[in-house]
Amino acid sequence: MERAAYILYFLANLAPRALMFVLLIVLTRLMPMGEYGLFVLVVTTGEICDMALGNWVRVFALRSEGAGGRVRPRRLGRLVALTAGMTAVSLVFAIGSGLLRHDQGFAFALAVSAYLLAFAPLRLSLILLQIRRMHRTYAAVEALRAAGTLAAASAATVLAGPGFLAATLGLAGATLLAGLVGLVRAMRGVARPQRARTGYGAAIAFGLPVMLASLLAYTIGIVDRYAVDMLMGPHAVAVLAAAYSLARQPVDLFLGPLNAYAFPHLVRLYEQEGAAATGRAQAGLIATLAIVGGAIVSGLSLLAVPLLAVALPADYREEGAVLIPWIAVGSLAIATKFFIFDNAFHLSKRTWLQPPAMTPPALFGILLCFLLIPRLGILGAGISYALASLAACTVTALITRRIIPIPLPWRALGRVAAANLGGCLALVAVRGAVDPLGPVAVLVGGTLAFVVVYAGLLHLFGIAVRRVAETPWAPLGPGGRAGPGLTPALAKS
């Protein structure tokens, strides 16, 4: 994979997430808080069904075909059948989600169903484009989805009224259009899919543990929304979701494309050089996550108040400000679990270990929600998310260390932490100096101070930012160079 692919994957993941983030902020100003809370619950329920029941198909397809760069007709037929089957199962859960609501149950089920039907062809097209390494087309499809989602959902809210159903149908329509365009592009030059009579048992054996683990994982950071809805109502869900978007989206924006870019490389590395070499590459990815994710968490925590003053209406700000640091920490922890340690299950095809790895943290997270939210209110949701995410990351790391041992790069992490601390001190100093000028000046000045000092200290400590961007899996050696353990071809691929 060429080095430019990471930039394309970064932009491809950045566009829909960034514009979805913008959409969520825009809708806080276009919708009453109750309707916004219901919209968030629709998107949350749709995401749970789509990711938990369908995302394993992507992992399975990349694991089977990612190293070859092409899709064989029968495997393509199996992929289409699996996508259709999982979408049908998801729709059953969508209908059930409506039946469980006493208010607007039919509209809620319709909205979730539209979300799922729109995302199925999109997911299939992105799988095929990634397997075929059509990076530019992958980025273009995601850009089309991003722009269309923002325009269609906003327009639907303005023209049809500030209700959650109209916004969801607009979002679904734009997503469906992007997915169909992606499928047309992905299928060019590919043999027509043929019906596969076998292989479904192996696929389900691979995917069932992933589905169970995903459902358990969604108890962390998602079940709190339903608990808050039950205990405090949709208005509180609106505040929690808005703060969650502000704190979680930046982490996903930058770390999501890293995983999409690195996973096919890890597949090739695991198959060609084994677990030890893969572990060294994972150590390099941990250092990269610390460099990028640590900076995001520090910035969000120290700039929460001016960020909320700029981004959200006044009713969201006071409670949102206390949530953001907790959600930012939890987001980095859960991203490390998903993008580092979970890959050991997928690469070794030992996905049956995922549910045992997630069960204790999931139960811990549920317990914390129902202990802390009644006592601390919405703050309890943020604390429970952070603690449960840290527990999930720790438990998964302990279980996977026998599958793919990762030599943790403590020296590199120490250098990153020292640079981060220097950036934080610069941010605090500038924040105090420009505070009288207003929240925008605080945001701009504090961010610039942090970035300049942080980047300068990383360079001073021998960490080359360009190396991190080009080969994020290469272990940091002296002077920020790629360390030993990777062949030149794999280090640059």
Automatic annotation (TrEMBL):
Transmembrane segments: 7-30, 36-58, 79-100, 106-131, 143-160, 166-187, 199-220, 226-247, 285-309, 321-340, 352-373, 379-400, 412-434, 440-461
Keywords: Cell membrane, Membrane, Transmembrane, Transmembrane helix
Localization per Swiss-Prot or TrEMBL: Cell membrane
Keyword flag Translocase: no
Gene Ontology cellular component annotations, sorted alphabetically: plasma membrane
InterPro entries: Poly_Biosynth_Transport
Protein name per the record: Lipopolysaccharide biosynthesis protein
Membrane topology: Multi-pass membrane protein
Zinc is among the record's keywords: no
PANTHER family per the UniProt record, alphabetical: O-ANTIGEN TRANSPORTER-RELATED, PST FAMILY PREDICTED COLANIC ACID TRANSPORTER
Domain of life: Bacteria
